[in-house]
Amino acid sequence: MHILVCGGTGCRASQAELISENLKTEIENRGLENEIKVVSTGCFGFCEKGPVVKVVPDDTFYTEVRPSDAKDIIEEHVIKGRPLKRLLYKNPKNENKVTSTAHIDFYKKQVRIALRNCGFIDPENVDEYIGRDGYAALGKILAEKSPEEVIAIIKDSELRGRGGGGFPTGLKWEITRNVENKEKYVVCNADEGDPGAFMDRSILEGDPHSVIEAMAICGFCIGADKGLVYIRAEYPLAIERLKIAIKQAREYGLLGDNILESGFKFDIELRYGAGAFFSGEETALIHSMEGFRGEPTFKPPFPSVSGYKGKPTNVNNVETFANIPVIINKGAEWFNAIGSEKSKGTKVFALAGKVNNVGLIEVPMGITLREIIFDIGGGIRGGKKFKAVQTGGPSGGCLTEKDLDIPIDYDNLIKAGSMMGSGGMIVLDEDDCMVSIAKFYLEFTLDESCGKCTPCRIGNKRLFEILEKITEGKGTEEDLERLRLLSNVIKDTSLCGLGQTSPNPILSTLDNFYDEYKAHVVDGKCPAGQCKSLLKYEIDSEACTGCTLCFRNCPVGAISGERKSPHYIDQSLCIKCGVCYDKCKFKAINIV
Amino acid sequence: MDKIKLTIDNKEVEVAKGTTILDAAKTIGVHIPTLCHMKLDDMGIENKPGGCRVCVVEVEGRRNLAPACVTEANNGMQVNTHNMRVINARRTVTELIISDHPFECLTCAKAGECELQDLAHAMGIREIHFEGEKSTYREDTSPAIIRDLDKCIMCRRCEMMCNEVQTVGVLSAINRGFNAVVSPAFEQNLDHSACTYCGQCVAVCPTGALTEVDHTPAVIRALSDPTKTVVVQTAPAVRAALGEEFGLEAGTLVTGKMAAALRRLGFDFVFDTDFAADLTIMEEGTELLDRLTRFLEGDKEVKLPMLTSCCPAWVKFFEHQFPDMKDIPSSAKSPQQMFGAIAKTYFADKQKIDRKDLVVVSIMPCVAKKYECGREEFAVDGNPDVDFALTTRELAALIKLSNIEFNALPDEDFDKPMGESTGAGVIFGTTGGVIEAAVRTAYELHTKKELPKINYTELRGMEGVREATIDFDGLPIRIGIAHGLGNARTLLEDIQSGKSHYHAIEIMSCPGGCIGGGGQPYHHSDSSILKKRQKAIYSEDERKTIRKSHENTYIIKLYEEFLEKPMSEKAHQLLHTSYFDRSTQFEQED
Q: What does pTM read for this prediction?
């Protein structure tokens, strides 16, 4: 029997390590250490209900486990042989307790390829990876295939880059292979930076060997003997697990001078990024690895021709790599049977925002947003109304009700005014102000722009200032026009993908929520009640009982009135903190 | 070479493969505006980060606009450089730059020379549709260069010059987004960095973000002080460039008009740094012969090759970057400082004035000279040998300020004795000139024979690193020449690794030598200007009746009356110096 405890960053933050420790202690106390193994795995994805613990082979899934629950789990589940009911997942629809993940809506529509091992194996143990067909793909190609044959498989699989661009992976490999040079590099882009996104981190934390294996396969195909993982230094756990995995792979002869005695030589080094978002752009990433300022340069030349140290370099994202070994093992037809017409396979998303089930999900391409949000995500939190979903991170856009049934793939999302991006997905409800959302994303871009080209450096600043003006109630209709004009120029003239896509959140909200913008500038109102400058708290003198609670809690002394008679808010003093609104027991305070 | 054909603004054009759209357009008279892009043709100097986005053009079939300066022209390409979309984008980008730029054009040191101003004018921008926060930074004043980063437009030209051409590595972009700016490490001031003050950043800055420290007010004050005797010296490269400031064709020699203007400005004595250049040759040439003779006699202690030391930026460069080699350069001071030392001793004595009442002003093509004249070792009891160094540009400003119609001035001569010079002194102004002047003298002193020829064309040119072997009557003297500090670095590293075996090396910090100095009229990326200035220098040399330093009668007289002989004790005291290890001077500011 195995007890799998999620060892992803999220669950660890909720004392998952202590849960493991306590479980081990309880097992040892009962002398069962030979019967039961406690395994710290990668992320299960169901972060909403973390920390999670799974018992196999009977597939019992426990959620929101605390370290003090260890004793009961062992006592009830292991000794008495019945599931510990109070820790089972409760189906929110019918309040029934669910034992297995197979019956949990969150997992039902997921298809796990890149995340196949996350939550199943101990990422610090190469044997467990090998036990699930790990390194079989590498072994197979070294023994049986030529680089051209492998590239043909990847091309046939129609795998496209998961970092956001969606460039055909096999074609990229082929281009790099065809550039003649003795020195080439394989680079894994692990500089994940979209707000709220943690797909790559979870893969590296939960299944580092899959990336290592894929990089070696890539090295074999393009003719490189060196791989580099560019990973942000803020991912300490992923770094640690990668280091352990590289070491184990070397010990097993899966990396090194003579891999599996085939004569193929390949090794991997880590390069740390300082957490600059724009260093995820491949030319900027390469400059950063070379020790220069991480900023993009004009393409061509593409890295495939002139990359790291001026040598042909194949840059792929973590998730892209994680798909490779499975494709080799199961074949291109198996892979391209999954997904939509132009986008094959699956995509990992970090589902966040106002949904019931936030977490990491992997879904087949072609699934609808409705299925993701309402089935997997369990609908909108607190029974509120769905308003929009932001995909593609700060480069993406907001999609609305009308887009919910579009099959998600690279092309459809772009057509709908957003993009796939690396997999950030933030769900918004009726309480979210779309102007503020656009401002939030733009502020992120502003902070993360490298400052090299004018439109991104100054243009985005000006866009942000206009949005600020609007949310402060000082905007005009002319500003809305200017927002659109400037956004279009920034898209048209920026140097790299960051700038070319940075106005997308503005353009898509302008397209879909123009009335909301207009309400800000024409009526001076924020329909979602988020923009403080546009709010006014007023006391309904009929409803006010003169209890003085608001008077006593107002931090700036803006409220006056006699006991037992209606109170009054001095608008010139009010800072719109909302304390009075929250404190009032008689619903006498209105937001107008 | 492979040719390709494309269409630009409905005109077909054939260019070599690899040509950018920008260059292809030029061949048919289409001048796409640029801002960050800068190229000095034939000198291997190019800045093309593709960052400003002013040069965007529409390429049919391409999703977004293409920057013409970095986009290669392709066969069959259809390019439009001025349709609605392009003009709107270009103007918006320009407006954005201006929206983050101080509106100080009336008082800006760069007014009239500013490339952003020119661009705004050319685009017909009459209104800025974007307002908002402007970046502000503290001003950084060093002994030679002022950085006013509020005016920085992130073209990165300075950074390219500092890192790639000069390999000094002081300037680099820091911070992100709107706060990105070019700065020394840790936002330190220039004078806390390894900056050499070569001024090449100033020479290429399109705006007023980088300018020289203005010494003209101090000079006006000195000229107005009746208790002061004010003498002026003018460096050789100034006369080949000053005319440009008054609308004359590049390469017009204005030696006579310059002397006349200086006299009208009120200088009591109008002298010439060329005189001191001749003096430098006497000292440096003698030092070279001395080292050479000792070397040939088997002296193991003697250091060869000898490197020239006329250039203050070069001196500061090796003090920072190659401190272990600081005993290799000649100990001879630069001509500017030799002039100051002689003026404040020999000349002051002759005039019977106290050195404190004598003000020495130099007109230099250089901003590093401002730093050099302030070096502590070049002062006596706190009184500097050279009080103020003005750039060519500052002199032009002073002439304009004083209502002098420069082009109408008659040609006048320099005053005696320190205005007398030879053709050897003049060629100090260009790369290869110092070593050619040294050869002319060292040959005759060494061989005791007359030079077989006077023009050593093998030492001339514009290539960054050059070498030649000069036959000293049977003794082959191997000479290396580098201009641009990056090229100097290459030569130094070759010496360090034992790869090179030169006897003498001439180094000038600025591309082209002093004619391309940081204090010269702005070349605005036109390298033909530098070539014309170089030509002018050699024609001035040709015009001189005496062309060897050791034949300068006033130099001979100076030795007879005062210095005795080259490298005498007195000469050592006044005309030679020593260098310092500055490798550790990177302390953190408080």
A: 0.91
